[in-house]
Structures are given as C-alpha cells and as structure tokens.
C-alpha cells in the first residue's frame, strides 16, 4: 500500500471510528459486563480497521454485526473456560495406594521433601549431583538428605510390616 493511500485510509478510519466507537460501546454494555464489552469493542475496531475497504455506506449496522459476532465468540470462550474450570474442580487427587502396595503406603507416610528426593533418585535416576541441581543445594547436602530419606523410608517400611529392602541371608549362620 502506498503512503498516500495509507494516509487517506487512516484519515477516513479516524473520521468514522468515533461514531462507531460510542454506538458499539453502548450496544455491548447493554449485552455484557464492562470488561467483556471493552475487549469486544477493541476486537471490533481491529476488524473494522482490517476490513475498512469492505465497510458499506451504512457502517453502523455492519459494525453492530461484527460486534455481535465478536461477542458471541467471547461468550463461547467464556463458556469453554467455565466448563474446563468445572472439570478441573472435580478432579480428585490420586487415590491412596492399594493395601498391598507397601512401598506406596510407606512413601505416603514420608514428608513431602523426603518423598521427592527419593523419587528424584529412584524414578528419575539422578545421582546426588543431579538432585543437588534440581533442589538448588550443594551435592553434599543432597547426599545427606538422600541418605536420611532412605533411612526414613526403611523405618516406614518396617512400621508397616514390610521388609526394608533385601532380606538378610541366614545362610552359613547357626540357628
């Protein structure tokens, strides 16, 4: 678009926009809340600018039609967000582990910090250096926390009647 036509187009838009602005704002405020009305008005003016060469001589009904469609889109988006929020609200936390899942029960009995460091070590296969990077602590601190978390897990497993890892061999021992 050459600068002369661009300046002419801009001047024509600026002449038309105030009349459309006030009328469309009143139209929207009667149909929705103020925040939505402002958002839809902005979108309507953007469309008016983009499609300015298509605007008929009777510009106000055309602008109302654009605003009506933009408002319908905004209302659909609001309903989708409400449905999503409702679905999220009904999500339940993971159910407790089954009674025969002794490790899950023992992990549930640990403090959150201990369970997290054990998951980083066992599930993510991180050494103390990697755990230190995730937690933002020194490697020494991560090693100590991991050692203590393992001890607490053993204690939880014993408390719940499960062995704490490998059973000791009694082979070669006298009864």
From TrEMBL:
<feature type="domain" description="RNA polymerase sigma-70 region 2">
    <location>
        <begin position="13"/>
        <end position="80"/>
    </location>
</feature>
<dbReference type="InterPro" id="IPR039425">
    <property type="entry name" value="RNA_pol_sigma-70-like"/>
</dbReference>
<dbReference type="InterPro" id="IPR013324">
    <property type="entry name" value="RNA_pol_sigma_r3/r4-like"/>
</dbReference>
<keyword id="KW-0238">DNA-binding</keyword>
<dbReference type="InterPro" id="IPR013325">
    <property type="entry name" value="RNA_pol_sigma_r2"/>
</dbReference>
<dbReference type="Pfam" id="PF04542">
    <property type="entry name" value="Sigma70_r2"/>
</dbReference>
<dbReference type="InterPro" id="IPR036388">
    <property type="entry name" value="WH-like_DNA-bd_sf"/>
</dbReference>
<keyword id="KW-0805">Transcription regulation</keyword>
<dbReference type="GO" id="GO:0016987">
    <property type="term" value="F:sigma factor activity"/>
</dbReference>
<dbReference type="GO" id="GO:0006352">
    <property type="term" value="P:DNA-templated transcription initiation"/>
</dbReference>
<keyword id="KW-0240">DNA-directed RNA polymerase</keyword>
<keyword id="KW-0804">Transcription</keyword>
<dbReference type="GO" id="GO:0000428">
    <property type="term" value="C:DNA-directed RNA polymerase complex"/>
</dbReference>
<comment type="similarity">
    <text>Belongs to the sigma-70 factor family. ECF subfamily.</text>
</comment>
<dbReference type="GO" id="GO:0003677">
    <property type="term" value="F:DNA binding"/>
</dbReference>
<protein>
    <submittedName>
        <fullName>DNA-directed RNA polymerase sigma-70 factor</fullName>
    </submittedName>
</protein>
<dbReference type="InterPro" id="IPR007627">
    <property type="entry name" value="RNA_pol_sigma70_r2"/>
</dbReference>
<keyword id="KW-0731">Sigma factor</keyword>
């Amino acid at each position: 678009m050459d600068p002369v036509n661009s300046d002419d187009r801009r001047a024509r838009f600026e002449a038309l926009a105030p009349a459309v602005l006030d009328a469309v704002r009143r139209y929207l405020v009667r149909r929705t809340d103020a925040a939505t009305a402002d958002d839809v008005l902005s979108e309507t003016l953007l469309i008016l600018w983009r499609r300015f060469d298509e605007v008929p001589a009777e510009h106000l009904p055309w602008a109302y039609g654009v605003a009506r469609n933009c408002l319908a889109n905004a209302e659909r988006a609001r309903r989708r967000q409400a449905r999503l929020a409702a679905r999220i609200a009904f999500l339940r936390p993971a159910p407790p582990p089954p009674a025969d899942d002794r490790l899950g029960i023992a992990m549930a009995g640990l403090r959150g910090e201990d369970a997290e460091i054990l998951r980083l070590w066992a599930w993510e296969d991180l050494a103390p250096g990697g755990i230190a990077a995730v937690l933002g602590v020194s490697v020494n601190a991560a090693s100590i926390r991991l050692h203590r978390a393992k001890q607490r897990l053993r204690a939880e497993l014993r408390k719940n009647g499960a062995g704490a890892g490998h059973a000791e061999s009694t082979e070669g021992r006298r009864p």
